[in-house]
Amino acid sequence: MVAVTIWNEFRHEQEDEDAAAVYPDGIHEALAGVLEDDHEVRTATLDEPEHGLTEDVLESTDVLFWWGHIAHDEVDDEIVDRVQERVLEGMGLIVLHSGHFSKVFKRLMGTTCNLQWREDGGQERLWVVDPGHPIADGLEESIELPTTEMYGEPFDVPEPDRLVFTSWFEGGEVFRSGCCYRRGNGRIFYFRPGHETYPIYEDEEIQRVLRNAVDWASPTAGSPRTFGERE
Amino acid sequence: MVAVTIWNEFRHEQEDEDAAAVYPDGIHEALAGVLEDDHEVRTATLDEPEHGLTEDVLESTDVLFWWGHIAHDEVDDEIVDRVQERVLEGMGLIVLHSGHFSKVFKRLMGTTCNLQWREDGGQERLWVVDPGHPIADGLEESIELPTTEMYGEPFDVPEPDRLVFTSWFEGGEVFRSGCCYRRGNGRIFYFRPGHETYPIYEDEEIQRVLRNAVDWASPTAGSPRTFGERE
Amino acid sequence: MVAVTIWNEFRHEQEDEDAAAVYPDGIHEALAGVLEDDHEVRTATLDEPEHGLTEDVLESTDVLFWWGHIAHDEVDDEIVDRVQERVLEGMGLIVLHSGHFSKVFKRLMGTTCNLQWREDGGQERLWVVDPGHPIADGLEESIELPTTEMYGEPFDVPEPDRLVFTSWFEGGEVFRSGCCYRRGNGRIFYFRPGHETYPIYEDEEIQRVLRNAVDWASPTAGSPRTFGERE
Amino acid sequence: MVAVTIWNEFRHEQEDEDAAAVYPDGIHEALAGVLEDDHEVRTATLDEPEHGLTEDVLESTDVLFWWGHIAHDEVDDEIVDRVQERVLEGMGLIVLHSGHFSKVFKRLMGTTCNLQWREDGGQERLWVVDPGHPIADGLEESIELPTTEMYGEPFDVPEPDRLVFTSWFEGGEVFRSGCCYRRGNGRIFYFRPGHETYPIYEDEEIQRVLRNAVDWASPTAGSPRTFGERE
């Protein structure tokens, strides 16, 4: 069984009534609920020692989820190093929504990961632009979300290896909302949907994407990454 | 000076009053007008001998434009071979709008190049998703077109080398509307805007894209393409 | 169980003593032997009706292998159309060695697929340049083949989506010898090793690559490829 | 005229007799000599204040060269931030040889940038695998270097946007020795050749590549990179 660790900043839900109303146990528990039937799921949060990401935890994680928003700067650089190293060794990484601005994602992308945004509660439609991608397995041609925060282009990331979703927003914007990367042996998926007060992760199609993404991001055996001096 | 040849099917404008009203001399002449100040421009049309694309014409062409819609099947396979060969040698190719279904484009892509469409005269906004690309030089963050035909995903083309534009449509769709490819030594740019009865090519920002695309698609010297048996 | 069809031109082995000595039942049977324990394997050859690739056969094939060399031109264009269509729908395609010049591969690539070559029986070493790729699962850092035909750059194909292997040749050349592409919903892997008189497919590491490639190229469910007019 | 700044660690040449014999004024001066006829060239070195890379210098630089080897750790993180920011805004960056392990390159790639190596003075042949790329303009099909340090795969970098050169080494290895990337609006070229005691930069074909790379990496106008909240 694939070992999934869900990391959540877990601040909104403890500080903000609206967020607590939607995610009373935290976004990490909501995500765990989506995945726990078919995966071995653990959670970790910012305020735990080592943010819950000890070497043992990371060593035994196949796929790591990352959700953060208002406290990116509080993530210790040493833990960022550790996550980066594990991704390059093969651990999958799924970065959600406002995690675009996390130290971990910026470190792995090498860019600002900046974008445009507007918190207007408008409609979003995620179009599958790569119907052959395993992350799109079993979806319809698009996913509709009635109430979302808008993210708009330009999105300052490297050109994705594969672009799976592009979002249409009621207010007139578009966004590359499902982006696949490989870095070292690790697979990275950035997936835009999510918010601390809109119940995006209760949507069944979004849940299907999250499960597909775990399958896609799981490590494969690969061949040796042997570096250094050769005889 | 870059030598541009503009190929147009030139049927709508001779058969259909609405098209003739917008492009009385044909779409090729309208495009020629956009480019002729800074380039050496020729035109060629379907009903000329060899569709106007003799070996001499192609040999002396740096960048070829392609506009076709209702008569793709009438293009001779031998001419398609000839265009493909010249692109692989280094000639640039700019495929416009309904040219997505031309034999030439399908030959070079290897896919169906199919898509969704709706002729509703709705609004389109082309977002620059790659602000560092030379085809975006001098543009604003997006281009607005008040009245267009909709093209929607999925667009069955290989993942572009660089995606420059993504379109938002009033009716709820998105489309990868500016796609860059290299095939052999040739640069290929697919650019969605255009229509036989909407005066898209009169838009100054669209004209800027067309000029930028010629600069980008022009051949470079390169190094030898030497194939075959080696000693 | 994944349904594999192995297509072989099957001419060398019937016309040439040296080839018959290495592959007495044909290259297709040798490849079938490699895969039949874990897959449902069929074979098809040029001289069968419809080259053995009827609509029924292709419809029930998950992954198609392609080996051809001296009779590429005898492959019927209608069958090429059929194979291309099935790949775009999702069938995997693994093109081996001299299959680089097959109609099927050239059709899907859109380029000449030309290269340099020398039949000198020299040494080849295939380096894994993408150790995280599933096609490299379980390999060492390189594969050594003591006696091969050389293929050298430039190789006139589109830039691969992922480059898995690069070959070093004793005579001084390099070659991108393991190239991954997606076209439509189909996965395509070009793998250089193979020859009609060198027993390349008896090498255990090469066999491991062939099995890995079948796993990688197998279709996934995907989402709808719905094209045409929208309401 | 394109404004080039050549950054060199400049330690080997001051500390090591062999390096001083080959590059008496430093590698930066040798590179400046290659480029100064057609470009506005400045140099900067590690031991200058702010490593010679003040905000003014970077602001007025179109293309930055980077050569470092034994003192990567002495480069101040603040200067690394500054260089990264300028690249994302559009400044070109050309990273040479052992610069693969510089903080600047690792920051922009997001990976370890590790590789295999052997200092054996063997022969290298750089094959052009992308003859249509402007960095290959005017070259032959390959460049021969009689005496080099070997760099071998795996090279832990993101899959290049375009791979221009692949090296063959006498000792049996291959290496992706000319890799193009875009990050933000900036163009990045990693070019393997170079060494502190082998006079690689005196080779005329290598000099041609350096000049071509400056042309390719020079900023274009682009369109706005506007981020943040939208109305």
From TrEMBL, chains A, B, C, D:
Q: Which residues form the signal peptide?
A: none
The transmembrane residues are: none
InterPro entries reported for this sequence: Class_I_gatase-like, ThuA-like, Trehalose_catabolism_ThuA_prok
Origin superkingdom: Archaea
ThuA-like domain segment(s)? 4-217
Protein name according to UniProt? ThuA-like domain-containing protein
The organism's taxonomy opens as: Archaea, Methanobacteriati, Methanobacteriota, Stenosarchaea group, Halobacteria
